[in-house]
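Record type: monomer structure entry
Structure origin: computed from sequence
Chain ID: A
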Amino acid sequence: MNKLLFTILFSLSISLLLSQSRDSAQAARRDSLIRSKMGNAVYPLIKEAKMGGVITILNPEEMPDPKMKFKILFNFTQGATSSSKSKELNGALAEVARVINLHIAAGVPKKNLDFVLVGHASALFSLLDDEHYRKKFKIDNPNVKLIKELQEAGVMFTVCGQAMNFLDIERESLLPGIKLAYSAKTVITNYGLKGYVLTDINE
């Protein structure tokens, strides 16, 4: 019986490893394709994120109304959880850049964009100033320039006070201009009732 159980578990482990290998290969091919396409990308407003570019579409039949006010609340939990990830630009922040660039490229004026980002969980590490990022990851925060550019474009950054407490992150360790919220949950409900569209930007 033990031999049979071992054989079954061994077979399942091999199947899982093969599946993960196929998934990794597919992800690598997808990323390669995306990078090749990004060679034709334009960056109408936010330029610090390579993956924040957009492709020009000729004669689209569906376009956003440039007279409308676009209110989006970005839910941001993706952070640097390893030394290798800590060296890279946060992909979720690059997605915020892309959403902004998409709206601008589609003809929505900057004055009609109203974007709020709420950070919690490990995303908070990507919002640390260089001094505190170095203490954790031994390097400067690679997200600083992008965050500043997003702020200058009008994105309001908020962080979850509950997550700050659980992760022992002091308010003073965050980059300038980031607002402390009582919790991410209350930010989500508060802005949801104000008509903001909740958008999850995590990979």
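Annotation 1: Helices lie at 2-37, 83-86, 91-105, 130-137, 144-152, 161-166, 184-193.
Annotation 2: The two ends are 42 Å apart (CA to CA).
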